[in-house]
Amino acid sequence: MLTKIAWANEYLLGVSTRTMRNESATMRTKTAIIITMFLTIAPIAWAQTPTPPDPKQAEAAKTQRKLLDDRAAVIKPLPTELKWQQIPWLTDLTEGQRLAKEEKRPIFLWASGDDPLERC
Question: What's the pTM value of the predicted model, to 2 decimals?
């Protein structure tokens, strides 16, 4: 037997008590999920708040960058050492033979049976 409130809800609003309980449980579940997401994501977002750089760290970074640039300058090839990259190398032998005949030049053939990066 329905209580007077349940009967009134069902009669006047067209909503049964069971439906109201299910909607209430669904709303509690959604609220719990939202709160859990907020409590999980908020600390991560706050932890990533940028801080102003420390002048000592900035100076150390500049010094480190200068040291790396100096090392790179020693290792980096000079433009005169990179002239071989301007040569129009061919990978097709027949095309190379045709071009050598046209220009009356010798053929430089590089052949290897191994992977060039493999152990000698």
Answer: 0.32
